[in-house]
Amino acid sequence: MAQKNSCPLPEVNITASVQMGTKALLCCPAIPLTKAVLITWEIILRNQPSCRISYRVETKETNETNCTDRRITWASTPDQSPDLQISAVALDHDGHYSCQIATSDGHFQERHDLKVLVPPEVTLSPGKYRTAVCEATVGKPAAQISWTPDGDCKTKNESHSNGTVTVRSTCHWDQSNVSAVFCFVSHLTGNQTLSRELNQGVTSTPLHSLLTILYVKLSLLGIILLIMGFAFIQKRNSFRPKRKLA
Question: pTM here?
Fold first, then answer.
């Protein structure tokens, strides 16, 4: 998600997807700060105690309760802008962020459901017997994998404790005319395409063909031995002394 330079118009609920490692800007209701009496941010992160940050306009007093993450701060000074920013989004910033502004005219609230995106690490490796393995490791959410050309594919997802998912797709091609394959990985953080030459593997030989080959080889060996034996006898006879006639 690209960094925003200004806040959108007031909304009751906003779902925002932010890539890990980038900066996030969370906005309050767009009302004149001259009417504000109390500005409160309530942050509920998954598996963590809720954090509350408040700013009283009249006394310019700021209070924090259970807030220990220094990456979450005011985007500016609260008397100039009540918006919140996360300097470097991490996986543990997944959660709900609510801005409440109390004014003389009533209360205004804007809620943000922040979803952190993690780009997967993509690899394509050869397998045995015309097989290839495409893997999208520790992505959030799970990536989608497809192949060209189509093959006999099996895909498995492995979920991790931090919310990321590893997707592994293994494909086999019987067609001998398929020499190269392409793996397409689709993800909210961007798409990737990898290609690889297909391992031709080893072609198995039927039993009757093996017996035929063995018979031919033994026959040739027998002929060669017969020729060598005949040549040996001829050579031996040529060296025998001739008998003299009486």
Answer: 0.70
